[in-house]
Amino acid sequence: MPLKSGQSGINEKDRSHHQAVQAGQVKEALHEIGLKGITVTEAKGFGRQKGHTELYRGAEYVVDFLPKVKIEIVLEDDLVERAIEAITQAAHTGRIGDGKIFISSIEEVIRIRTGEKGAEAV
Ligand SMILES: Nc1ncnc2c1ncn2[C@@H]1O[C@H](COP(=O)(O)OP(=O)(O)OP(=O)(O)O)[C@@H](O)[C@H]1O
Ligand SMILES: [Mg+2]
Ligand 2 center to residue 84 CA distance, Å? Predict the structure, then answer.
């Protein structure tokens, strides 16, 4: 039987608590490698399971958004590999929905208070 919306076996309170704990662990791990700033956003999304915790072959299922935590960090290039390791270690459970790390380049950073640019401004 296909799972209906919300039938994930994890209630919203547990999920939200778990996400807060994981976000905290990610923040702590990043702090240790010299993080300068972080943005955490409560988001909605889905990955391969389309919002269901299990995929049933042939089942008709609807796409459903799940509450997620989106973490954005801007780092100097030489910290990226260590940041990936720290995030992976802190967030990995081995279960579906562990999340993804998307890597992209930032063209410029301007620190408004001081007018600094580039690495100095990060
Ligand atoms: N390709 C993507 N583009 C944008 N956002 C994505 C993408 N893949 C995942 N996400 C975001 O990351 C969240 C977690 O993704 P998730 O870990 O479930 O990915 P997955 O591909 O389904 O892998 P898994 O099978 O391990 O669950 C999604 O709910 C969504 O918000
Ligand atoms: Mg998934």
Answer: 19
The structural domains of the chain, with segments of one domain joined by +, span 12-121
Regarding the domain delimited by 12-121, which CATH topology (the fold level of the hierarchy) does it fall under? Alpha-Beta Plaits (3.30.70)
* Per-residue pLDDT, 111: 98
List pocket residues of ligand 1, CB cut-off 6 Å: 45-49, 66, 68, 96-100
Q: Of the bound ligands, which one is closest to the alpha carbon of residue 94?
A: 1
Q: Tell me the β-bridge partners of 68.
A: 43
Model pLDDT, residue 11? 74
What is the Å distance from ligand 1's center to 54 Cα? 14
pLDDT confidence bin for 16, thresholds 50/70/90: confident
The dihedral built from the CA positions of residue 112, 114, 115 and 118, taken in this order, carries a sign that is: negative
